[in-house]
Each structure stands twice: as structure tokens, then as C-alpha cells.
Amino acid sequence: MRAYGIDSPDTAPVLRDCPVPVAGDGEILVRIGACGLNFADLLMIKGEYQDTPKPPFTLGMEVAGRVEATGAGVTDFIAGDRVAVFGGQGGLAEFGVFAANRAVRLPEAMSYEEAAAFQIAYGTSHVALDHKAQLRAGETLLVLGAAGGVGLTAVEIGKVMGAKVIACARGAEKLEVAKAAGADHVIDAKSEDIREICRALGGLDVVYDPVGGDQFKAAFRACKPEARLLAIGFASGDIPQIPANHLLVKNLSVLGLYWGGYLAFRPEVITNSLTQLLAWYEAGRIKPHISHSLPLEQAAEGLELLRSRKSTGKVVITMGDIG
């Protein structure tokens, strides 16, 4: 089979041929139809992600495909089942072996491409807004990086949960994407004052921030008392330093979220969240936005779209028709 990954430290990823893996105890062998790309893949290439595997390893954190075989002890799946899996690695390949307890069965209407674009982006935003921030109907939510992989899902989910959503992104094209996802107001991060516009709109109850840097600082200063700020990531490369005295004076809360971390200590948070999200998908209330779908041999081009911020929503890599 073909797989795209890192062979040794400090080397660029390559597409190479390797043996098809065999499912062990508690594992499933998946013929992969599609793999969603994430900013974390770029960090893994540089060895900067908190869960970077030791080389050699195959990139690709989330996949969708068809079960080909099951290992000993697997009772929830059989060959032929259509599944999505958050494996953390191993997705940019034609086959992959994953823990069966990380797989979910797909709705019949959901394509492999949609499923590969679903778990991390929607899961991150739903756990952040519902479980962590406890967003309430009628509250005002600011989403930074609102046209990106996770940001766009935060706009959608915020609207489903009844919030007034302000979407912040760079450039008219990305703002149109955020509007189409349901944003009530938009801010161009390239040319407009985030703080002043948010204050003019009555201030912020919740801030969803996968960007960091100056945008976080501007949003921080537009918060109402008892606002909650969600630290999702730092795509700007600038990790903001938070003045604790301001937290005290305005009774603010800053909440960190690492979605994958829940698998280690409270997996039911992710399971319950995905159950709700799939129900919303089947009801037509949310729909993955995929700006680029590329074949495996163009995986490097897909990653460059993320690096250069030329994509909106998700970039997905496909492995061909798997039935």
C-alpha cells in the first residue's frame, strides 16, 4: 500500500510503499477512503505537537473508510462496516489499523469525505462550547479564525445552540464563507478593529480562539463580566500572556481545550458529543464545509494549503473509490 509520512527525525514527509498492516487484539483494519488534514499535522512534521509519534510514522489524524478485518476481541464491528476513526496518526494511507474503541459507525447519508472532515473540527467546537463554556441561547459568541477548520464549525454550532455569533476572519472571501455558515456579524481581521466592533455590539460572553496573538488580546478587552475565553490553539504562532489581574477584576474565565486529551481520562465526553453531532448532521442542522479534496499523491499540496491559510473549512485527502 501507499502511505505518506515521516521516516526519520528532521526529514520531510514522503509518499512510500509499505506492507498492509494486520489488525491485532482490539483493533480493526480499515480500508481508508478519505483522511482529513489538521493544523496538528503541520506541527507533527516539525516535531512540535504534544502527541507527535516517534518516527517512522504515517501522518493523518482522522479517517473514514470500510472495515476490512477485525482483530481478536472486537465485537462492535464486522467487515464491511462504514466507520470514522480518530487514530491520531496513520490516516494518510490506503489502509490503517486502529483501536476499535476509537471508531464510530457512519450514517448512510454521510460520505467518506464528509466523515473525514467531521470528528476533530466539530468535536472540538462542540466540546468547547457545550461542555467547557456552557454557551447559552442568547449569549454573544466571538469566533476567531472563523473560516478555518475548527472556526467554521464553531460558527455553525454556536448558531444551533442559539447564540448571536460574530465571526472574525481575514478577507472578504473568508467572511462570506462564515456568513454562509450562519454568522450574524463579521469582522475583517485584516482591516477592522475587533475590540471596538465587539464592544459596539454589546460585548462578548464567550470567545472561541484557535488563533492567539493580537486577536486574543483584542477579544479579551471586549469581554463582558463573567465571560469565558476558550483557548483552542495558536495558529498565529503567538501564545498570549494573560494578565491575571484583569481576570480578577472582570470575573473572567480562560478555559483550555485539547479535544483528543479526553480520550485518556473522560472518553464519554467525546462519545456523547459525537452522538449529538451525528444527530444534528442527520437532521440537516450542520454540514461539513470542504474547500479542497485532493488525491493521496497531492498530500503535500493539501498540507501547504493549511500552512499558507489558503483553505476554508477542511482539506481532505482521498484514496480513491473504495465502495
Oligomer kind:
single chain
The number of helical runs is 11
> Please, what is the average pLDDT?
95
Radius of gyration based on Cα positions: 20 Å
Instruction: Categorize the overall geometry.
Output: globular
Helix-and-strand structural type: alpha/beta
Q: Spell the H/E element sequence.
A: EEEHEEEEEHHEHEHEHEHEHEHHEHE
Summarize the main sheet: 7 strands, mixed
Q: What is the terminal-to-terminal distance? A: 17 Å
- Low-confidence runs: none
Describe the protein.
This protein is of the alpha/beta class. Helix content is 30%, strand content 27%. It contains eleven helices and 16 strands. The protein has helices at residues 39-45, 112-116, 119-132, 151-160, 172-180, 194-200, 213-220, 244-250, 262-265, 267-282, 299-307; strands at 2-6, 14-17, 27-36, 57-58, 62-70, 82-86, 95-99, 103-105, 140-143, 164-169, 185-188, 204-209, 223-231, 253-256, 290-295, 314-318. Strands 3, 5, 6, 7, 8, 15 and 16 form a seven-stranded mixed β-sheet that branches. It has a six-stranded parallel β-sheet with strand order 11-10-9-12-13-14, with helices on both faces. The longest helix is centred in the last third of the chain and has 16 residues, at 267-282. It is globular, with a radius of gyration of 20 Å. The relative contact order is 0.15. The model has no long low-confidence stretch (mean pLDDT 95).
